[in-house]
Amino acid sequence: MKKKSHPLKLNALRILLFFSFTFIVISSLGCAKHPKGKEKPAPEEETLESSPLPSRGEFNPDFDVDYSPLKEEIIYFAFDSAAIPGSERGKIEKIADWMNQHPQTSILLAGHCDERGTEEYNRGLGERRAIAVREYLVGLGISPEKIHTISYGKDRPIAIGHTEADYARNRRVETGVIRK
Question: pTM for this structure?
């Protein structure tokens, strides 16, 4: 005589098998790794070749630099860019003219950023902006030995607000005359 299985036990076994199979499938999908070489490549960082930088010398950028002689020639930049806008090139040409009239003088180009971005990124961006202005001046015939650069990143804003107009005023390179 054949023993018949209970219908509730058979259904419980089917449900258990169904959930076990579902668990295995979901677990294998959840642990999938990104195949190597299929990841989105990081954007290439903007590079700028520069003339050899002069030694820092014996000046203190906080005490030995006077920004008043060239305070009207602040060069402004677009968001997240170190490219010199065409509208700002005339200011750099005025700086070159001033330097030609004062051939014994050295300058400090101070790069700044708005508050968006990390500290490290903004330091790099401020330096790229200062170097871009430096290279433009070198292209105009100014000796690279007379041009120093520094980046303050987002540490020294001239506009404290959080509007786009405030951010635009903080994306700049200022030119200071080294008085030492």
Answer: 0.72
